[in-house]
Design goal:
CATH architecture of the largest domain: Ribbon
Structural class: alpha+beta
CATH superfamily of the largest domain: Umud Fragment, subunit A
Number of domains: 2
Oligomer: single chain
Length: 208
Amino acid sequence: MALTRRQKEVMDFLSGFIEDHGYSPSYDEIAQGLNLASLATVHKHIQALESKQYLRRSYNHSRSLEIAERYFAEERARKPQAADATIPLLGRIAAGAPVEAIANPEALHFSDFLGNENTFALEVRGDSMIEDHICSGDFVLVEKADSVRNGDIVVALVDGSDATLKRYYAEADGRIRLQPANSAMAPIFVHPTALQIQGRVLAVMRKY
């Protein structure tokens, strides 16, 4: 069954919100973002989209909406196919001691990231990861992941509402340590039940 115009607006809002924030909106945020009259109307749209297999819900988690592959497949089909996204890699340049500049024609391929529904970008705000050279205003490319390894830089949702970018460490006492890369800041310790991993950082991008 095809989406109605209003259902398409709901799906586009959800997709944009998750892309911007790294987690799904609350029903209140959906109602406010789409100027819906009541939460009952939001529930009605969510149930209809779930029955059409555009959405999935985890009933034991807050902010539990997840966009299904059907929506992404239809969006890809709707948009014209872009050319393979590559940039020539012509060699290396020294940022320390000088090295011989040698032309080495290769290419950086970005097509592995483009069009992958499991990959999204977030703009960084704050200096908690500055010693890992992730600065406020940078963009991080994130891959959705339910499980990560010690030392991974992750997007973590704490207590269902507070999203943060930190290195992940499982402590011996069962807690999770979210470690900033800023010696002026203290780590965050949380119980695993209060933590939801949204994804792991793949790359950092910076505009000048």
